[in-house]
Structures are given as C-alpha cells and as structure tokens.
Specification:
alpha/beta; five-stranded mixed beta sheet
C-alpha cells in the first residue's frame, strides 16, 4: 500500500522559501510546490517537462527556476505541500488528495492528475468482519486520524459506541497482528501488502490521486490557470492517441460510430472521390479493438499516431 507520510498539522506556517524565492523573482513567478522525493517524484518531473516547465535543479537546492515559463519550482515533502499552499507560501502545489483531506487545508483543488491512484480503506483481519460497523467501538490504527475519525463518527452515531483512533506514522498494516488494533485505515493500491499482512478490505473511506491545488488568494490567477491547462493537456495526451485511416465514403457513418473523436473526427477528401481519410482522437487502451472494428467496416491504411500534448 503506497503510503504517504502524515501531514504536519499546524495553524500557522512560515516558509524558508518565502524569504529566499519571492525576492529573487520579485514576485513575478508563480511558485509551484512539488514532492521532493517519493514514488511519484519522477513521474511528476516528467509531467512538468512535458508541460513546458523545463528547469535544472542544482544538487541539494530545493528551488529551481523554469527557463520557458514564469514559474519557480519548490521541492517540499509531499505531506506538507497542502499546508504551504493554504498559507500562501507557494501559489500552487501537487500532492495527494488524501493529504489535502487529512490536513483540512483550505485550498482549491483544480484538477486530478491521473497518477498515484489508490483508495483509503478500512481493513481488518481476513474473516473478522463483513461490515465496517462491526469495528465501531473497537481499536483503529491509522496514519490518517482525521479522516478515520470522521468516518467512524458516523458509524458511532448509529451504534452508540465510541471508536478508539490511534495514530502511527508507518507500518500500519502490522498493527492488527501485533495486537495493537482490531482494524486499520490505510491506503490500498494493489492489495499486495494488505494480503501479506493477513488483512482484507472492509470498506472504502475515499478514492485518492495526485491533484493540483491552489491558494484561493494567489495573485497569479492567470498563470495558475495556464499551468492547469498545460497539465490537463499533458495528462489527457498520456491516455489518448490519434487514429488515422482511409475508408469508402459510403461507410463513413459506420466508421464515425466507432471513432467519434473528442468533438468530431476530421474528414479529408481523397483524390478518389469515393474515399475519405479520417483522423480521430481515441483512448489508447481501446486502440486495438477500434482498429479491428474499423477493418471490419472496410477501413484501410489504419495508423496509430502518438499524441505528445494537447489542448481542448
């Protein structure tokens, strides 16, 4: 279960980057906080590069200025990013949706980034219970005490019992086997760690993924909107491709049903007036089935073309 460190909860937060970065760029650059390490770090770096936020990070320096976009990248612990954004120390940040919810940071969630997808779930020893309400009034161990408390408060209101929520910073899955808990609330991705610990899923608390969040009072609204647009375009491009093919005009309606495109397919006449060329955006995961269906309705010269980036 790809686990993230619990957010540091605080009412006020001063940032060492506020004094260093903002005077350097005179406040003209939008400050973008990203995880400084972890399993999502490399994918986020690829996304920034693919979105035109090219930068060079000097070793042991947690600030980098983009060369082709008015942005400064600030590398922070993922668990702290939501709070830095909420306090206005940075303008936008990329962090987990679960961290945003756990920290209760007052930020605007602009968009999901389709990476780091997993679920925060109630888990218990295999066969111990069939419904989360059976754990009401018992001992729960988690790295997400706020979310766990909100979830079990609703169950406790129905059962009249009081669930004990205990925080641990890591290795949550061993709590039951050590006799510390009757159940846990933890992130679940593939389920390998859960099953190895002899646990099973009982209920889902919330789905989560990496998200782009913004300070509601940022002075860089237009830049953050442009950044959001770039990231959305990159994310969409990763899951789509362009298909191009030739087909008899008489079969165009059938082909259109197979490849309706994002708004509409592009149809280009060919020298042979009885044929047309068609281009359409399709989901990568469906490309082989789509090609087979097009072949069945008479399409020829069917090509799959990569999409590096896009805007819609």
């Amino acid at each position: 279960a790809g686990r993230r460190r619990r957010p540091r909860l605080c009412s006020t937060m001063s940032s060492p980057f506020q004094a260093v970065v903002r005077p350097k760029n005179n406040g003209e650059n939008v400050l973008v906080a990203v995880p400084k390490k972890g399993r999502m770090h490399e994918r986020i770096m690829e996304m920034l590069q693919g979105s035109g936020l090219s930068h060079i990070r000097v070793p042991r320096l947690d600030v980098a200025t983009c060369s082709s976009f008015p942005a400064t990248i600030v590398f922070l612990p993922a668990a702290d990013i939501a709070n830095y954004v909420a306090e206005g120390n940075v303008d936008v940040g990329i962090t987990g949706e679960d961290i945003v919810a756990e920290s209760e940071a007052k930020v605007d969630v602009l968009c999901g980034l389709e990476m780091g997808k997993c679920r925060l779930c109630v888990q218990a020893p295999a066969g111990a219970c069939k419904d989360a309400s059976e754990l009401s009034g018992k001992r729960i161990v988690t790295s997400f005490p706020n979310l766990a408390r909100k979830y079990f408060d609703k169950l406790d209101a129905q059962t009249g019992r009081k669930t004990s929520i205990k925080y641990v910073s890591g290795s949550v899955e061993v709590a039951c086997s050590l006799g510390l808990a009757d159940g846990i609330v933890d992130l679940l991705e593939t389920g390998t760690t859960m099953r190895a610990a002899g646990l099973e899923e009982v209920a889902e608390v919330m789905p989560t993924q990496m998200v782009l969040v913004r300070n509601p009072r940022t002075p860089h609204v237009e830049l953050t909107q442009k950044l959001e647009q770039r990231l959305r375009g990159y994310v969409l491009a990763q899951s789509t491709c362009m298909i191009q093919y030739n087909i008899p005009r008489a079969m165009l309606a059938a082909a259109h049903r197979i490849t309706p495109g994002h708004e509409s397919p592009t149809v280009t006449p060919l020298e042979d007036e009885t044929w047309v060329s068609v281009s359409a955006l399709v989901q990568k995961r469906d490309i082989n089935e789509i090609m087979d269906q097009l072949k069945e309705v008479g399409a020829m010269s069917i090509l799959q073309l990569a999409v590096a980036n896009c805007r819609f």
